[in-house]
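Have a think about this chain, tokens included, and walk me through the fold.
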Amino acid sequence: MTIYAAGAVCWRMVGGKVRVLIIHRAQRNDVSLPKGKVEPGETLPETAVREVLEETGLAVDLGVPLGVTSYTMPNNRDKVVYYWAAEVTDGAFGTSEFEPNEEVAGCEWMSLRRAKKALSYVRDVEVLERFQLLVDQGVLRTFSIIALRHAKTIPGSEFDGPDALRPLTHRGRTEANVIVPALRAFGPHVLVSSTARRCIETLTPFAEATETRIRKTPLISQDAFEDGSSDVRHVVAKRVRKLKSAILCAHGPVLPEIVREVGLAAGGTRQASLSRAGDLPVAGFSVLHLSLDQPGSGIIAIETHVPQLAG
């Protein structure tokens, strides 16, 4: 059975230069990037954030995905590790309470050049090489627009009332709760929802968990989309201009338009990738990473996540 894990390249600016965090693991007597195994019920982004906190004491939000490494462990089991870039803010750095322990003997901030030499495994160096590309391109600092489809809803044929008032099913309410940790891993600060009840109910668990207000707009509702009164471009352009991570919760027919408009607002990007990012199942979401320093440089990366429910 394959073991799945997740981690991050934690970075911060020191004197105008990028520094990355490596950890010294006591039991294995090696130097690596912070990472750990996925626990039952966890998503990969959730694992990455938790493992960074447990191993380094740093609370981070995830940035651009840095790809995957895979290898065979000494027990002959395969291991697959997913990585993200993760900026360590001054606040997170100042409040870290890391203390050496049986698993992690120490943490050390290094230049990329020194870190590549210090790491024990070529696979970790390859992750840093991908990270280096972001640095070289000047797009290391990012924010994200998250396109979220509402959770499972009572079918229109079974609901006696306006379409906009259809509520979530029991499964849909479960999905809305399950996706909270994965969404939270990317640190969205703004919640924008269609005025439809099913979208508002999908965002409510996240809003309550983070004490964030839901901003409702008919401009990305399905009713407006179908009668021609929607204005997806206006909503998306505003969010991109603000340079803050945000969730836009809408409907199946509207999401491809939201994703397309993010691509246009960011300066154009690959149409095939955008098409896939907008084709989401219920409670699925795509994270579109954009550059803070070069907002017109296109979408830096796209990743899609789908809730996994037991049974």
In short: The domain at 3-137 is CATH 3.90.79.10 (Nucleoside Triphosphate Pyrophosphohydrolase). The chain has eleven helices and 13 strands.
